[in-house]
Amino acid sequence: MRQTHLTLITLLLLIPSIITQAQTTTTIVDSPNRQEVSTNYTNFRAPLQQAPLLKLPVGSVQPKGWLRKNLELQRDGLNGQLGTVSAWLDKNNNQWLSNQGDHGWEEVPYWLRGYACLSYILNDEAMLNETKFWIEGILRSAQPDGFLGPINEDNGRRELWANMLALQILQDYYEWCGDERVIPILTAYYKWQLAYPDEKFLRHYWENSRGGDNLHSVIWLYNRTGETFLLDLCRKIHRCTANWMQESGLPNWHNVNVAECFREPATWYLVSGDKAALKATYNNFWLIRRIYGQVPGGMFGSDENCRHGYIDPRQGTETCGFVEQMLSDQILMAQTGDLLWMENLEDVAFNDYPAALTEDMKALRYLTCPNMVQSDSRNHNPGVDNSGPFFSMNPFSSRCCQHNHAMGWPYYAQNLVLASADGGAALLIYGDCTARLKVADGQEITIDEQTQYPFSEDIKVSISGLKKKTTATFPLYLRIPTWTEGAHITINGKTIDCKPNSGLLRINRQWQNGDQVNLHFPMRLTKRTWALNKNSVSVNYGPLTMSLKITERYEKKDSRTTAIGDSHWQETADPGKWPTYEIYADSPWNYALNSNLNNMKIEFRSWPENNYPWSHEGTPITIKAKGARVEGWGMDASGLCEILPDADAPRGKMENITLIPMGAARLRISAFPPIK
Q1: d(CA 188, CA 589)
Q2: pLDDT tens digit string along 12-31?
Q3: pLDDT of the residue at 306
Q4: Start-to-end C-alpha separation, the chain
Q5: Which residues on adjacent β-strands are paired with residue 473?
Q6: 548 has which bridge partners?
Q7: Rounded distance, CA 345 to CA 212, Å?
Q8: 3-state secondary structure of 155
């Protein structure tokens, strides 16, 4: 009897320990569970394939730190003020405000897509009023037959490309405020599309390439209404869109089209369930990078269009291409849960996109290249595919990038925290932020993320805001980057019992207010060799690619003389407030790099007082390295740095050089000739 009592007592004492251990399980997974269906957010409705991750309504994630600083600079810079500057946004006789309008068809929705999201995130009253003004114009454009938007016809065929941008704007707007007018207006428009003859539907160049954007928006509406005709429309859109499912080619090689449209097969997969379609998106991504993407930064050389033989890192990408690739990565990240898209997103966002704009975000380049040693207003054709002043920092750097560039950071901010289909939360790209979201059985929580990532190895995640109950059981997904080794993760100070390898760490736990997860991702120097580009090398510190620090000399120019021809001023705009800047190298740039990582020294500097780390002088990380100038490697007749020199090109004596993050270098050498 006594033995029985002792046994019972022992078991009772063990129970709390057993429960505590069972409350937290940690595993490494390839993707969140897509078999479960969230009751908290709009899922992919049957018969569509279920996505493992769901984007939160815009405004749910509030960025802090350097990202919020970027958004504030954007508000005060070109994007926030463009409505008073660009003639394409002039409200008088604008196509989105008048049936008799003559301008703004593409430019208004290009601009408003980023501007509207920025206004929602910042909750800026003046910007919100301006956003609502234009959205009312979009809603009023709905016709009795269901058509939405300006009516432009070519050879009897209705042009639909700019309308696709307006669809995205209305989706974000609906998620932000739930305006009941949006759903019936979109429903009527899609009925018009279904009735429109196939031989006229999506036949113009841009819309034919970009039909995947239209497809994505139709799926968005189907998930909310279940109207079966929308599935028929999905099939029609895919049938009439350019074929992005070729085995060894693309329908066209325009850089923005590629960045935007390569994902169309993956979107079609959601409807068809055809795994060959999903595979085709991956094939497209790697095809372009095997040929034209043998350069650092996550993008590919396509100054306008990819050209046979033009693969050197002096070939650039449109700023439009950067932000469209970022958006594609975000969409695919949610649809697949694959690390590939998360890490490519960071690669472009950290290493390409920041340097495409001036530090005050009042001017931008049409083209930015991994190796770029002069940023001027001259015509660099045929070295680049474009003919015009496409290298200078110009507020009027072609009307497409001028209006479209600003969706980059607002959409990035929205994706810092996602909901998982199994009722959890996911942090897959990291950034200082606070997010409010529903988990488990509808309980609301606040996730607070504190970090200076990617300039810091440490991320602190705190859980709070539980009100209905004292606890909530749900999975938290955290990305373990492929570039880190020896990641260390604690929960409330205790090291997790799962060895964190690269992948998605799933922490399923009974969470309570005050729980804290600390992530430590050791960063180290790594080297990449670009075999197709003469074995050139690039250096990374964690997710940051490093570039040669070149002394940059800025020359202020009158934008009235340097503006690209398709960009126009409003009559009341003051050109003096919007100068162009040309940037010239005031130090040598033609260095080969001693890529022995043991000879490099990482130096950390204090965090910039203005909270902007993408500055040439304010970056908090530099690397001291050794290099030697390559004799004869200079500028060519088109005003570009010459293609990478051969391995046997004479080198000078070894010198000390400094590397800074690629995103902070408006002039840079990022792919170096190697020193054996």
Answers
A1: 58
A2: 333 333 334 448 999 999 99
A3: 96
A4: 80
A5: 510
A6: 659
A7: 19
A8: coil
